[in-house]
Prior knowledge:
alpha/beta; Nucleotidyltransferase, domain 5; five-stranded mixed beta sheet; globular
Amino acid sequence: MIKVFVDLEFCEVNKKIRRDLKYCRCEIIQIGAVKLNDENCIIDRYDRFVKPVYGEISSFITDLTHISEKDLCGACGFEEAMDDFLAWIGEEETTMYSWSNSDAGQIRQESRCKGYDDPRLQQLLSSWVDFQKVFSGILQVKQAIKLEAALNGAGITFEGCPHAALADAENTARLFALTQDEEAFEESAKSILELLRPKPALSVSLGSFFSEELLRQLQGEEPVEENPD
């Protein structure tokens, strides 16, 4: 069994094209991934640009991801990129992980939009793990946590450039590996665990401090008259 941690970068498709052509909202422009073995060590890396059909590389996308139109000039399209990515994953039993479900959702949507269908991909999507949700569960909180904040809370320094697909995938894998060593994780993330985990309820009640008659008065009830002997 191998584990693959993947991160995707997207660009947005013009609203008019989406409306007129019933096209997907975004297109993938970069795939980054790492493979982990049974010891949770990185054994391989994958990094590839993907050329969108209609998606626009806006200044916002370039500022965020450092990806420009020039980077995508010689890139292949979605279908060829997915074939190549699946070939890199291989035929060994695999569990896919990403930080949030947005990556799996994008692959599903873009595959439907572009008529891409591969049984191997469908199998991987069916067992995809949202590690952001898993990590929130470890901390016993409901809110989603940003990757950089999760890393900082766990005492891990982000390596590489944030929002570069391979760097995000690799840092997510590093966080995963730490959580698999319970003792090391508890020590490394002690401060955030103490801050976020629910505190045990108090084992005493108001009744432990006040008499029954005084409690009635505090609650606005009339005192009970004692029956004369």
